[in-house]
């Protein structure tokens, strides 16, 4: 058997002293939390040149008192987000996907704006192939077959996005797919001209919905409704 370790007598006076000492002594009500009595003058003699390089100048700092947010206004804004959210839209008996068919037409000034041109210039194409005019015409034919009114069909025919715009929207969708870890597309073997018109329309619709331009986003949503029928 192993020998027992030697035992030492416990000093009861030390135990009593520990019990009387608070664990969080700094939280004592008698503690002075005023740091004005502490002296930090030695900091003036330290070499802080390396630490102060690249810091924000004092005049660039924002005055918190002047820029303080009105909490009441913030609460009203938060309530407004939920009460006026587009996701709270309740359709009526007259609302249908056919009302969005006018969004098939995209004014030319929307696709020639600086915002759209900037998005096109910054786009990194993951597929070298470009969309051709016949593919654009087949997509247009699908959408025209969904138009109920002749006036809407004429408007769509005259203001439908060009092949260059559709090509940009399709490649926006493909670039987004390339960033997904679970993409269902094999981009190295993808051939745009061998895809069916419904697939081209779907890709352009999702690309339009990803753009920051409201007109193209409405175009994308409307095309989604038309293609899935």
UniProtKB/TrEMBL annotation:
Highest taxon of the lineage: Eukaryota
MF terms in GO: metal ion binding
Entry keyword annotation includes Metal-binding: yes
Protein keywords: Metal-binding, Nucleus, Transcription, Transcription regulation, Zinc
Protein name per the record: Uncharacterized protein
Biological classification of the source: Eukaryota, Fungi, Dikarya, Ascomycota, Pezizomycotina
């Amino acid at each position: 058997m192993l020998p027992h370790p030697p035992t030492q007598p416990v000093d009861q006076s030390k135990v009593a002293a520990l019990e009387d000492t608070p664990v969080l002594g700094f939280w004592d009500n008698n503690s002075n939390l005023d740091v004005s009595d502490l002296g930090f003058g030695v900091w003036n003699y330290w070499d802080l040149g390396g630490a102060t390089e690249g810091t924000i100048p004092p005049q660039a700092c924002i005055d918190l008192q002047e820029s303080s947010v009105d909490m009441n206004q913030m609460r009203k804004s938060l309530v407004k987000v939920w009460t006026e959210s587009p996701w709270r839209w309740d359709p009526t008996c007259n609302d249908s996907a056919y009302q969005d068919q006018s969004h098939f037409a995209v004014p030319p000034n929307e696709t020639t704006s600086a915002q759209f041109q900037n998005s096109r210039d910054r786009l990194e194409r993951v597929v070298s192939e470009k969309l051709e005019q016949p593919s654009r015409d087949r997509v247009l034919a699908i959408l025209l077959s969904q138009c109920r009114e002749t006036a809407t069909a004429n408007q769509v025919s005259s203001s439908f996005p060009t092949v260059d715009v559709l090509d940009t929207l399709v490649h926006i969708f493909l670039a987004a797919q390339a960033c997904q870890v679970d993409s269902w597309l094999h981009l190295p073997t993808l051939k745009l001209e061998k895809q069916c018109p419904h697939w081209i329309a779907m890709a352009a619709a999702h690309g339009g919905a990803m753009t920051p331009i409201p007109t193209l986003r409405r175009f994308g949503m409307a095309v989604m409704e038309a293609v899935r029928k």
